[in-house]
Each structure stands twice: as C-alpha cells, then as structure tokens.
C-alpha cells in the first residue's frame, strides 16, 4: 500500500513538473511572438523612414541636375534666330561660359533636304573635332532622336557611341511655316562629370553619400557606397536618363534610433521577461538532466563495483575451499594457492581503498600526509600488487624507474599508480607490454604508464578524468570498471601540485596510450 502511494505521489509530481514546463514554454512562445511582432513593426517603420528620406534626397538631387541642364537649353534657344543664323555666334558666345557652361556646340539642321544639310554651326572651342561632331550627329545620333510632332518641344537624347556617352538637347521648328529645322545643343558630358556634379552633389552637411553610375553599374562620379548601407538608386528623369544617381544617408543610423525609441521600453520589458523565463527553463531542464545522468552513473557505478568485488572474492573463496578440503596435489600448488589468495585480497583491498578514498574526495574530507622519500618505492609496490595479474594476461611490465626524491603521500601515489596500471591491463587489449617509468626533472617528477592497446578516442580524452565517466571503447566492449580510478588519479596529482594528462594514439597505426602524472618535488606551503 505504501509503495503504491509512493508511486502515485511520484506520478503526480512528474505530471505537475511536465505541466509546469509546458506552461512556461507556452508563456515563452506567447511572449516571444509578441517581441517578434513588435521588433518586425519597429524594423519596418525604420526601413520605411530611411527609405522615404533617402528617396526624397535622390529625387531632389536628380531634379536639380535636370533643371540646371534645361535652364542652359533655354538660354541656347533664346540665342538662336532662324531668320538669321549668322547671329548665333555673336549672341551666344559672349555669355556661353556663364549661362551655358556645359554646352560645347550648337547645330541647326535643315530636315527638309534628303542630305539634312547643316545650316548653322557654332562651337565654343573650334577645332578638328567639330567636323567629327557634325558627322556623328547627322549619321548616327539623329536617327535615335524622336522627330515626331509637336514642334518646338524640348527633348533630350542620351546615347552611347563607341563606349562614349553623348547628351544632346534638341528642338524642331518650322521656318517660314513649312520648312522643318532641327536645333541641337551638344552638352559636354565630361564637363558635367568633372565640374558640375562636384558642385551639385558635394555634401556640405555630411548627411548623405552619393555617386553616379552608368547603365553597366560603373561608377562615373563619387566613391563606392559602403556595403550594408541603405541606398536608393534613381535615374535622371529627362537628361542623362541612362545614368543613375545612388544615395545613401549617412544619418540613417540616427533615423533608425529615433524610430526604435518609440517602442524600446515595451520591447525591453517583454524581452527581459522572455529571457528570465528561458533562463528558468534552461536551469530546470539542466538540473533535471544532470540528476538523471548522475543517478544513472551511480547505478552503473554500484553495479561495476559489485562485479569488481565479486571477482577477487570468488577467487579467494575457491582457492580457500580447495586448501580447506585438502584438494592440493603438492606443497608447490598449496603455496601457489596461498599466493593467489594474498594477491586477490590485496586487489580487493586496493579496490576498497579506491572507493573509500573517492568517497572522501566527494565529501571534501580527503587528506594526505606528505613526507620526503623516493617515488620509486610506492611505484614499485604498485607494480608488485599487479605483477601476478600481468603475468596471467601475458603482459610484460617493463620498468624504467630512475631514483627521484620528492615530498609526497606514499599511499596516495601507490594508489594512483595502481589505478593507471590497472587501467592499462583492463582496457588496452592486445598489448604485449606496459611500460612504467619514473622520470625525474628539475622541479617535478613524471610517472609514466604506457601501453600498446587500441588507444582512446580523441573525443573521450577530455572526459575520462571526470567521475563515473568511462570511454566509449570500454562501454562497447562491456569491460567492467568503476569509472572513478582516473578521477582519483587526477585528484591525487592536483593535491600534490601536479597534473595528469593522456596522449593517444602514439603511432601511425592509431595504437598506444600514454598517461603521465607529474608531481612537484617540493610541496608549496
């Protein structure tokens, strides 16, 4: 009855726990949705604000260039008298540099003739290039003009010939009411780029960044606009309509901040609530997962230790019964059985010592008695404990023990070396020898245990010194172990002011493992 009530209570607790987590998740989703919606609205408002401001600047700047060119065109037509074309030079040239700085030449073409005769031509800089301009207009550019009525309407032609841009302003007039004439003003494009644009598009207030690009996207004026800038590209309406003015507001960041401030407080409060909820969920889930994982590891630990205890106890009992019943062939066998009993007892004692020492470490009560001595002594005792087991497994314990004086806890060092050698004998399957070495240094001494086994996976090497953790190879091979030996070795090494490390593999065939425990010669005070 009590067991059933306990199970019912646990079931109710689990149900409440799941419901609590579900409620938190729903709250987080609702709050997260509200935050996302608010953020999207703020971002949309910011983008619209920046776009509108940039579009307004681009419209104003493109319109300014068009108006300047059209104003020059009107000044040109005011100086053209069809009744007496010889007066163009006298009326236009004196004021040309001031009123029409980008107009280089004026042509008047008679459209009534098949050859389209040039009736008038005036150039600000007469020279050999004038004939080329006349031929270019008559043979190639006039064909691209819109010569349909109505007459006396100002039109513009922005055309590319041989990768060179040309801008022409042109009008049609009727002379004597029946003879169509075409008046053409040729604008110097290089003059527009080099002199006019720097005056129109220089940012005195540093509020925007601008450049002009052609139909291929090549920059004709200005510097490249930085990546990530919110820019608007707008074609010139009527004059240089093949080109595009690109504008990016350098003050867009300030506009964005102004739009964001409207809901900053609301988003901050909701965001903080979401963070707190998420943090609570993470803490709860991690704590629950950690408890479940620790419970599973402890259960595995108890099972493994129980098995480790049963093996030597079974050997002691079997050989003890054989001696008790007198089933011994001779005195040599009797001595052999006694040696086995003693060594299995020592193995049992070492295992119990390991568990008890680890329990002290877990409770924070581990204490070591440091005294000067030669590290070869505790290492040698550890080798004696495991020699019989190594012989039984046909593994040679190869020794390289150099005298090394230090201040240490003899029993703790012996226990650490036993765990390292035991680890090699247990997990390094296929190894023919285990090398145990004591290597003295100036300020520290290194105890090395090296095997020729299959090695330790790289992703396991960082965790094998944690409590209850065993490598994947040991788990897959169903090798029994407590999972606390290397954790205890690490604690002993660090308590002696040293470190423990692992290196694997040791050769090109991905075999071999080397453990090194380094201890300080003198313990810090």
Describe this structure in words.
- Helix content is 52%, strand content 20%.
- It is of the alpha+beta class.
- The protein folds into two domains: 15-250, no CATH class; 362-520, Heat Shock Protein 90 (2-Layer Sandwich), CATH 3.30.565.
- A hairpin with a 3-residue loop joins strand 4 (164-175) and strand 5 (179-187).
- The longest helix is centred in the N-terminal third of the chain and has 77 residues, at 2-78.
- The relative contact order is 0.07.
The H/E string reads: HHEEHEEEHEEEEHHHEHEEHEEHHHEE
Q: How many DSSP helices?
A: 12
Q: How many domains?
A: 2
Q: Compute the gyration radius: what is it?
A: 47 Å
* Major sheet: arrangement of strands: 2-1-5-4-3
Largest sheet: 5 strands, antiparallel
Q: What is the approximate shape? A: elongated
Low-confidence parts = none
**Approximate strand percentage:** 15-25%
| Annotation, overall tally of beta strands | 16
DSSP helix fraction: 40-55%
Protein structure class: alpha+beta
| Amino- and carboxy-terminal Cα gap | 59 Å
User: Roughly what is the average pLDDT, rounded to an integer?
Assistant: 81
Brief rundown of the structure:
With 525 residues, the chain is an alpha+beta fold. 52% of the residues lie in helices and 20% in strands. The protein has 2 domains: 15-250, no CATH class; 362-520, Histidine kinase-like ATPase, C-terminal domain (Heat Shock Protein 90), CATH 3.30.565.
């Amino acid at each position: 009855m009590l067991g059933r009530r306990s199970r019912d209570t646990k079931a109710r607790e689990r149900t409440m726990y799941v419901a609590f987590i579900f409620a938190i998740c729903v709250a987080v989703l609702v709050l997260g949705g509200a935050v996302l919606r608010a953020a999207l609205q703020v971002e949309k408002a910011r983008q619209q604000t920046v776009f509108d401001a940039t579009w307004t600047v681009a419209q104003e700047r493109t319109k300014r260039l068009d108006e300047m060119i059209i104003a020059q065109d009107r000044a040109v037509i005011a100086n053209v008298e069809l009744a007496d074309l010889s007066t163009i030079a006298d009326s236009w040239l004196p004021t040309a540099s001031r009123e029409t700085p980008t107009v280089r030449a004026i042509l008047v073409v008679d459209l009534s003739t098949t050859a389209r005769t040039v009736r008038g031509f005036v150039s600000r800089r007469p020279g050999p290039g004038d004939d080329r301009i006349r031929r270019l207009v008559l043979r190639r550019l006039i064909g691209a003009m819109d010569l349909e009525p109505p007459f006396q309407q100002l039109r513009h032609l922005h055309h590319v010939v041989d990768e060179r841009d040309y801008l022409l302003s042109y009008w049609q007039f009727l002379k004597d009411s029946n003879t169509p004439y075409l008046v053409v003003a040729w604008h110097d494009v290089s003059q527009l780029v080099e002199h006019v644009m720097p005056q129109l598009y220089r940012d005195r207030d540093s509020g925007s960044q601008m450049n002009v690009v052609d139909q291929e996207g090549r920059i004709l004026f200005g510097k490249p606009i930085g990546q990530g800038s919110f820019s608007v590209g707008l074609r010139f309406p009527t004059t240089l309509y093949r080109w595009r003015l690109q504008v990016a507001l350098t003050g867009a960041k300030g506009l964005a901040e102004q739009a964001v401030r409207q809901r900053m407080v609301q988003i901050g409060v909701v965001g903080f609530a979401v963070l707190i909820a998420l943090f609570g969920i993470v803490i709860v889930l991690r704590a629950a997962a950690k408890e479940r994982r620790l419970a599973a590891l402890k259960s595995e630990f108890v099972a493994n230790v129980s098995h480790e205890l049963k093996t030597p106890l079974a050997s002691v009992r079997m050989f003890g019964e054989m001696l008790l019943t007198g089933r011994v062939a001779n005195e040599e066998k009797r001595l052999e059985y006694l040696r086995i009993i003693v060594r299995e007892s020592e193995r049992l004692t070492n295992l119990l010592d390991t568990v008890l020492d680890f329990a002290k470490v877990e409770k924070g009560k581990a204490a070591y008695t440091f005294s000067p001595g030669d590290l070869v002594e505790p290492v040698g005792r550890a080798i004696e404990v495991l020699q019989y087991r190594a012989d039984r497994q046909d593994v040679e314990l190869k020794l390289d023990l150099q005298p090394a004086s230090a201040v240490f806890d003899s029993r703790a060092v012996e226990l650490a070396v036993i765990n390292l050698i035991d680890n090699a004998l247990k997990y390094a399957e296929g190894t023919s020898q285990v090398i145990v070495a004591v290597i003295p240094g100036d300020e520290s001494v290194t105890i090395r245990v090296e095997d020729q086994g299959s090695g330790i996976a790289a992703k396991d090497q960082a965790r094998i010194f944690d409590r209850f953790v065993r490598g994947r190879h040991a788990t897959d091979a169903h090798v029994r172990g407590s999972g606390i030996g290397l954790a205890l070795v690490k604690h002993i090494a660090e308590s002696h002011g040293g470190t423990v490390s692992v290196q694997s593999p040791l050769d090109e065939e991905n075999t071999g493992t080397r453990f090194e425990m380094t201890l300080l010669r003198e313990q810090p005070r």
